[in-house]
Amino acid sequence: MNTQEIQEQLRDNQEVLMSHAERIGSLEKKGTGMRPVPPPDYSRDFAEIKQSLEELVKAATPAKQAEELTSIVNSLLAKMPEKIKTVIEYRLTGASKPVLLSGACALLVLIGSVSLNISLWRENGRLETGDTKLNLLRQKYPAISEWADSAYVHLDDSLWKKRDVDDDNQRSQVQQKERRGQPGRRRKSLLGR
Fold first, then answer.
1. Per the UniProt record, which residue ranges are transmembrane (predicted)?
2. pLDDT at 146 over 60
3. Interatomic CA distance for residues 77 and 29, integer angstroms
4. Is the separation of the CB atoms in 136 and 159 below 8 Å?
5. How many percent of the chain have pLDDT more than 90?
6. Could you tell me how far CA 107 lies from the centroid of its own chain?
7. What is the pLDDT of residues 41-77, one digit of tens each?
8. How many CA atoms does the CB half-sphere of 39 hold within 13 Å?
9. Is residue 131 located within the same domain as residue 166?
C-alpha cells in the first residue's frame, strides 16, 4: 500500500468518527429535555436476603453439622445387628466352565502320567535288581546259566520239535528209572536237561 492510500483511509476513518460524535451530541440534547428516572430501591430486599443468609450460616456451622451427622450415624449403627447372616453361592458362569473343565482334565492327565511314571520307575528298579542277581548267578554257576540260556534261545520249529521229542524221551527214561528205584538219577537229569 502507498502512503496516499493510507492517508485516504485515515481521512475516511476521521469522517466516520466525526459523524458518530455529531449523532451522540444530538441524542444528548434530546435526552436533557426528559425527566430522569430514579433507580428502584432494593434495600428492603437486600436486607431480607442478608437476614436469611445469616440464619442459614448460624444453623449450618461445621460443629452443628458434625453433631447431626454423628447422631445419625450412631442411630443407624444401633439399628444394625451385630451378626449378619449371609449365604454364599458358588456358580459357574459361561466363561469359567471351560477353563475349569480343561484344568480338571489337565490335572487328571498329570496325575495319571505321574503315577504311571512312578510305577514304571519301581518296575525298572526291580528289573535292575533281577538283572544283577542273574549276573551273579552266571558268575557263580556258569554251567547252569549256559543251560538256561540254551533252553530259552529262539530256535526254528524243527529244532523245537526235536527238543520236545528228546524231552519226552528223557522223561520216559526218568520215569522208568524211578520205577526201578533210582530217585537220585532223576535230580541229575532234571538239572542236566
1. 99-120
2. yes
3. 77
4. no
5. 14
6. 16
7. 888 888 888 888 888 777 767 777 778 888 888 888 7
8. 3
9. no
Domain residues for the domain of 167 are 154-193
Overall domain count for the chain: 2
Q: What does each C-alpha distance from 41 to 37, 48, 103, 130, 149 come to in angstroms?
A: 12, 13, 84, 122, 134
Lookup: cell for 63: 460443629
Give the Cα separation of 83 and 78 in Å (integer): 13
pLDDT digits (tens, 9 = 90+) for 73-114: 888 878 777 777 788 887 777 788 888 889 999 999 999 999
Helices (H), the chain: 3-32, 43-59, 62-79, 96-140, 142-151, 157-180, 183-192
Residue type, 88: I
Rounded Cα–Cα distance for residues 58 and 63 (Å): 10
